[in-house]
Fold this sequence. Notes:
The protein contains 4 helices and 7 strands, in the order H-E-H-E-H-E-E-H-E-E-E.
Amino acid sequence: MKPERxxxxxxxxxxxxxxxxxxxxxxxxxxxxxxxxxxxxHRLPMSGRFGLDPxxxxxxxxxxxxxxxxxxxxxxxxxxxMLAAVGLQGFRPRATGNRSFSYRFWDKPLSLIAARxxxxxxxxxxxxxxxxxxxxxxxxxxxxxxxxxxxxNKGVKP
Length: 158
């Protein structure tokens, strides 16, 4: 069975001219810095990214110019981008509206199957904390996640 190419996933945030395998190769071969508690803070000038880490997002208005036009690279956090992409394979946030999503974290250990249900809020857990984020258009045909904001148990931002 052939995959439906005309249906775009909500989490495909990069443009059509970029190839998924090339983004993965670039992230995996990039310098991740020290593989310690600072690994998620290490950034590099890179031209490609998934768009999962909002720290790497830019648009021409906010940036002051287009890095593409100026032949400059924007900073990317390769470890954060790659680990987020891997995490989304098994832990999907719940769609809550037009390009809006939510997820929950919990403070007690859960089995893998229960954790996959709990992250979307399908399995209520005691001691869980909810967050909401959006998929925002960047420039051209690129998008990115926004920074997540805490929500209360009713799904409303406090």
